[in-house]
Amino acid sequence: MAGMNIGAHLHLLDRLDSDLAQQEASIREARRRQVQNPELDAAERGAAARRDQLAQAMAEQRSLEAELADLETRISRDHTRLYSGVIVDPRELASLERELAHYRETAGQVEERCLEAMERVESLGVESADAARRANELRARWDADREALTREIESMVDALAGMREEREKLAAAFDPRTLERYQRLRSSLGHAVSAVDGGVCSSCHVTIPPKDVQHARESLVPCPNCGRFLSVP
Length: 233
Prior knowledge:
- The protein starts with 5 loop residues before the first helix and ends with a strand.
- By secondary structure, it is mainly alpha-helical.
- The radius of gyration is 40 Å and the shape is rod-shaped.
- The protein has two domains: 6-31 and 175-231, no CATH class; 37-170, Orthogonal Bundle (Helix Hairpins).
- Helices cover 77% and strands 4% of the residues.
């Protein structure tokens, strides 16, 4: 601690502890990004939903096509019977004509629905392909990013180790009681040390009495307002 007052030395420790906390938070966030990608998850859910919609639309189209084919078979059968000359009873012929007309009307409606289903399948096919392509692009990008992220995390972990080693050296200059008071202040206030700038505490902006400023150059003096230790350059 030679050449440096105790408050300024503790201020260095305070700033280093803040840098350590920030570095640890950055590493946690980077590791979270290694295993979680909300954008990709949302894209893959969207692609799966589009596939499900497409499958349902295709099933509906097949059902309508089968219904239309059945109606066309009935129409062909009744048309043949109507004009075959086999049926001569007027009432039976009239009934068959009504049945044929009903089948034709129904077939027209089903055919219209079938065309709508085909259009929907085509539209959903495009949407599904686009959604799958988007998800695949995000997946490929994430895989590439994770490789870079792994290297970044390794670098941050190495830097963190160096910071912790430096922290141990700084903390070794203080007695256990001082470190305990320091930790309590950091836990309750976020920072344990406040620089004095122009005779004012930089944390709470209260003017510090000149005698306290002078004492803070030689020993640990708390701010009379916020309680943080004062560091006088």
